[in-house]
Amino acid sequence: MTTRLASYDLIRKIAAGGMAEIFLARQWGEGGFFRDVVIKRLFPHLAEHKRQLRMFQDEARLLSELAHPNIPQVYDIGLSDGYWYIAMEYVEGLTVADLWRLGAKAGAVMPMNVAAAVVVQACEALHHAHERKDRAGRPLRIVHRDVTPHNIMLTRDGVAKLMDFGVAATSARKDTEAGAVRGTFAYMAPEQVRGKPLDKRADVFALGVVLYELTTGTRLFRGNDVQIMTQVVEQDAPPPSTIVPGYPADLEEIVLAALQRDRGHRMPSAAHLAMYLEELSMRNGFLVGPRAIARYFASVAPAERIREEALGIVEADPPRLEVVPDSEARRVWDVEEEILPDIDEGALLDDLQLLSIPAEPMGGHTPAPLSMGGEISEPMDLDGLVDGPSLSLEDSESLMLDGFSSADETGKNRPVVLLDDSARKSGKGKRRDERVDDSHPRTKSKDGVDYFEELERRFATEGDE
Q1: Are the C-beta atoms of 57 and 166 separated by less than 8 Å?
Q2: Tell me: the pLDDT tens digits for 135-172?
Q3: What's this model's pTM, rounded to 2 decimal places?
Q4: Which residues are catalytic?
Q5: What angle do CA 327, 328, 332 make, to 5 degrees?
Q6: Which of 84, 175, 259, 305 has CA 20 to 30 A from 233's CA?
């Protein structure tokens, strides 16, 4: 069951931190509009502390000033039902830490070019934040202060997104505590551990730690918080080649330059780190773009989006009729093998002639007897068979309806003359005076006149007139 927060439906909780909890939510609008977003909701007890609330609000303000493909966008900030929340872009994917862990379990350690591709995109995001100015043209001087594998999200398209600017330092925040240590100890620069003023080179050091760990497969600083802070301040990072035999020398030089404890000797900016990694890839001929990340992502964590049929915007295809193979159709009824019964045309004509005998009318009146042997009780009025304009023999076929009887003006029933099929077929295209050969017995009057011949004669006479 979803919970409503302002104009958002909270679908499920994704994570929780020290200041806020993260939800996957869905925003609804007019005209069927909807989109998935992330809701970052501040814990209610922290909203009572002005400093904590200001940090939460400043995160939304800072992100609204940033517009970069490797930084999630902020859509809204508000207060609803006692909860302060930030609505931001939903990045569907995995963190770098999760993807690296899945690869290690599957025996597919992240390749060096993929690790370099991740760091290059993170560098682009940081460089945008470091150099950004506000609407008045004054530099924001943003320092993220918490660049870790857990705060870099990867999409299935190979896009890296730098997350969580919640503890970022900026010149826009006047109440930033001097000497406050914020971030994750294992990824802090030495000056950050000491609580000194920071600049963009602190984030370069954190990216150096991320690159070191991804390419060597091991943590750079280990132990409890005190041990880690001591190592960061007092110990230089061991060369990666001492951990991984055959580690590329030019890549090792880049990594160690980013991890210099003295920031005066450290790589000066995230843009420089990205440039050196791209030059390295060109010299060695390997790919460091989004496609490299996407390929590795698909091999380690193959999956498909959960289908939500009710939210589809493309009309579903109609159900398809199953096409029966020709062999199956012939098995049910093979037309070529089906043998139809022979038809006795003579017997069929006899049956039709019997049907022409009128039924006994109501009142007990018995019609004039019909002689199938060629005689009838009284002569027929042949003039009444044809009304209207004269007809040819071919045209007369439409008037000779098999199996029906006709009544004259006196109400007496008289039989309809029947033509068998052979007579009809052979009569077409012949001369009117040509006799149609028919072996079937003819119906004659008492005078011995064949009615077929008489009809043909009358039609021929009327046609000539």
Answers
A1: no
A2: 999 999 999 999 999 999 999 999 999 999 988 999 88
A3: 0.67
A4: 146
A5: 115
A6: 175
